[in-house]
Structure formats: structure tokens, C-alpha cells
Amino acid sequence: TPVHTVEEIRALPEGVRAELIDGRWYDMASPGLTHQSILVGVSAGFYNFIKDKKKDCKVYVAPFAVYLQDDGYNWLEPDIMVLCGDNKDKVKEDGIHGAPDLVVEIISPSSRRRDTIDKWKKYQEAGVREYWIIDPKNRKTAVFDFSEEGGLEMYGFDEELVSAIQKEFRLKIAEILV
Question: The whole model's pTM is what?
């Protein structure tokens, strides 16, 4: 398999999206209606929580690059990223350089393996503190706590999920999809 670089991703025509994991290229399909509804609802939930609670955090949504290692062979575009405190310094005009505190991926049929295996491993190794995998097909959300406490909580879309690192943040995915 040929090794691709971040420079190749940057050279793509406007509107063409891809991700790069260890030099391997993954084309990204346009998201569907359910994906977009969840993206808007969850990111708005984080935005409002941060604003209302006066948290020292910022929320970002795709398409926005994350350079976990700044090694030239990894370029990810998570659906939602939250950075807090000093981690906000990782945000530059061209993307996030380093691990966000919290990453959310919304699974689409073409991204299932990448989101649940490849990215899970990359995010954990890079120091992401919390990783959500929202699975519209199975109406479940996995919340991985990568901090010292560790752990995994599974939530159905009708259940109120709780952030592992921002315990006050609660959300029902089903309410977003109404």
C-alpha cells in the first residue's frame, strides 16, 4: 500500500474530503440527514453547556483537521472536538495540533471499522481523554473514558448519557432526532 502524506490531503480540490491514518488514505462520503441532525444537536449541546456553565472550553465540528502527531502521515476529521483549558492553545488556523480533550464520531456505513478500531486506537494513544462513538443504525452511544479511571459506558438513544470528563453534561440523542 502506498504511503500518503498530509500534503496530498491539503492538495485535494475544495469539497473533496479524506482522512489519513498512518499514511493510509480513506475517502469520506458526504454525511446523510441523520448524521447531520446528530452532529448539529450534539455540537449545539456542547456549545450551550460550555456557555451556560462558563467552562473554559471550545467546541469544533468537521470538517476541521486534527493532527494527532504532526508527523505528516495522520490527518483526521472527527465530527466533533472539544478542547478545554490550556489545550485550546493546540488550535491553529489549519486545525488542531495534538489531542482534543473529547472527540465524537458519528458512525456511517463507510466509517464503522475506521471509527471503532483505527481511530479508537489513535485517539487513545494520542491522549484524547474521552471518545464517543454514536451509532445511529443501532441507536447506541459508546462513551469511552481514556483517563486514569478508564471505562466504557453504553447508552441507548432514549437514555440520558453523561460525559465522562464533564459530569454535568447530559444529553439524550433521541431528543435531537425529533
Answer: 0.94
